[in-house]
Amino acid sequence: MALIRKFAPFRKRNFNPFSCLLFGLLFTAACEEEEEIVPQTEGIFINEIFASGEDWIELYNALASSQDIGGYVISDESNAYSLPAGTTIPGSGFLVLLCNDLGSGLNTNFKLSGDGEVISLESAAGTLIDNIAYPNLDNGQSYARFPDGSDFWEITGTTSQEESNGDDSAPAINSLSRTPSVPTLNEEVIVTAELISTAGVASVSLFYQFNDGAFTEVVMSSQSGTAYTGTIPRMGTEGTVAYYVEAVGSNGLSTFKPATAPENLEYYLLNTDPLPQLVINEFMASNDTCCPDTDSGEEEFDDWIEIHNTGTTAVNIAGMYLSDNKEDPFADKISSDDADATTIPAGGYLVLWADGSTNEGVLHLNFSLSADGEDIGLFYIDGRTIDTYTFEAQEKDISWGRTIDGGTTWAAMENPTPGQTNN
Asked: What's the burial of 45, exposed, middle or buried (CB within 10 Å: 0-12/13-18/19+)?
């Protein structure tokens, strides 16, 4: 049975001058009236939180009758949103609020942080109804009460939007990794699944396929801590190896990683193409007034990276990767939506904007550069390294580039040349 948390009702008091005179010397509180209880809604809970994709918050009404929660305020650590008049939750039912910044109807004026934060719910009169601090959530995971409306919260790998959470959670897979991260032909690959907890886990299995063939199941072995490992055998021919992991609880509930597997899968390419003759040729990590980006319709002074094709044939970089961490080759995959934009002619240059605004076009990356120094990496479609460079702290409006295009010597450039020769 769900536990219903009760909240103290508001008390309205009538002014009584005799009481004030009699007790004024003993109590410093304002003179108040004799008690008249004003009913306060009980049994409304924040019941489930999803903060790893299209964010949402589920409310639960533990009462048997429908409840009007118009004017209730839902908030995170920075913003508050008042629910529209007439908003109701059916008896023993659920209501989902979409956290998408829209600020209308059942759409809040804020998004949720995947790193965790505090979510609060107040009544229209300002009484705190519920207050929940949720932890870091990986893609596909939610933080939920088990059972609905109880005091027990847990990360679960299976969400239950607008439905009962049931009595128990599904196993939660926190992350997948593989070794090596960029496999080659005839090389075994060890896949590691890190679970949040091994309590109540009945089995963990790895499923892999080669070139869209049938899936093969590998029962994964429990390691120290919360890790399970399984091995994908050597492949002697080029192609694509796709895989996912399923964790099954002793309660029969299962979780997949990726969360939407087998429709969406982790994968790696086995490829023997010769690497293209591309180099990171120049970049700017502190753009204040130099070199504007106008793709948004306005002048924006964003970080940028210039790639130079030192070869004798044009190269389309679609499907290749750029990263600000040379240990993570798969940070940002270049889109194939516009081949004209992503093709670098022989001896030519291409500028990509490191601004975190991928919605502005195929030449915009999902990261920015740190003016304090970090890596830049260019990687082939299979993750192999084409070129990397590690830089130190940068000055405003001064780029850093090769003194001769494609050469080995780098220097500060007071007159940046994005999209042009450095010579």
From this structure: buried
Asked whether the bond before 147 is cis by omega within 30 degrees of 0, the reply is yes
Domain that holds residue 252: 173-270
CB 380 within 8 A of CB 357: no
| 257 and 321 together in one domain | no
Question: Which tokens go with 421?
Answer: 């020769």
Q: Give the model confidence (pLDDT) of 366-390 as tens digits.
A: 999 999 999 999 999 999 999 999 9
Dihedrals phi, psi of 412, to nearest 5 degrees: -70, 145
Encode pLDDT of 163-200 as tens digits: 999 999 999 999 999 999 999 999 999 999 999 999 99
Cα 56 to chain centroid, rounded: 13
Cβ-based neighbours of 105, under 8 Å, separated by 6 or more: 84
Q: Quick check: is 163 in a domain?
A: yes
Q: For position 299, which CATH number holds? A: 2.60.40
What's the pLDDT at 299?
Answer: 85
Question: ∠ at Cα 59 (85, 246), nearest 5°?
Answer: 145
Whole-angstrom Cα distance, residue 390 to residue 398?
A: 16
CATH number at residue 111: 2.60.40.1260
**Phi, psi torsion values for 259, nearest 5 degrees:** -60, -30
Q: 167, 168, 222, 166: which is closest to 195 by C-alpha?
A: 222
The count of other CB atoms within 10 Å of the CB of residue 6 is 9
Per residue in 90-127, pLDDT (tens digit) is 999 999 999 999 999 999 999 999 899 999 999 999 99
**C-alpha to C-alpha distance for 389 and 290, rounded to whole angstroms:** 22
Dist CA 309 CA 404 (whole Å): 13
